[in-house]
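Posting this for the archive.
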Amino acid sequence: MVPDVIASTRPGEIAAGRFVLRPMRRSDAGLCAMYAGDRRVAEATRSIPHPLPPGAAEAFVERAMKGETKGSIWVMDGSSTGLSEVLGVISLKPVDLGQSEIGYWVAPACWNTGIASEAVRALVEANPLANRTIFAEVFQDNPGSARVLTNAGFQYLGDAETFSVARGARVQTWTYLRKLD
């Protein structure tokens, strides 16, 4: 029988309902390349190019493992409950003292399953960087990501725009914040 919820974790992991958030490992590169290489995933982010250049996922995983990225990165790993070893990726990037920006993407097969909501709630609850405030930005044509944030207690802050590498264009965004004090 496959458990519905993970009760315990290893050091460096965060329990997130049906999966854990854990540090990246080299074996994640293939699935990360497959999912991040999907146009729908890339176009929902600011920084993932499409098409994904050869070796980009491997380089990203290596930088994350060495701590050479801005912030902390976790893989959504459901392997202990019968789900995929890589369901998506979530990160916290410090932007100021006590403030970070959360970012995430989820494998298309896991869209509309609650995976993103579980990951965001778990990361906010764990608050591994001891933030007082967490910001988030989603593209206005992705209302599902906006619901993930509001369901996790984020408040709408305002409209903005940012550049999407995959789209090669500026994209209208909604900005959110979650105070943790």
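The CA atoms of residues 135 and 177 lie 4 Å apart. The chain has a mean pLDDT of 95.
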